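Record type: monomer structure entry
Structure origin: computed from sequence
Chain ID: A
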Amino acid sequence: MSPSLWWNNSQAALGYADSLEHLSHPFRLFISDGELELQIAPATRRMVADLDSLKPASLSNEYREYRGASHVVTLLVSVIDGVQ
């Protein structure tokens, strides 16, 4: 998750999850974090939990945590996994 989404007590991440509830077209979202991203992981998991509880009809989302990965490593593998 981009650090910008966890600033300000994760308010942007929470608002983002809510905004996806009313999509007008199909949308695929790949969400990931690294095990070593200690500040980012809680906000990421909270956003994933919000999406799972909302279950937007037009949204297909997947979450993956990369064991032993830092932010730099996560970016690289997320791009590859996200486009598959």
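Annotation 1: The mean pLDDT is 82.
Annotation 2: Residues 41-54 form the longest helix (14 residues).
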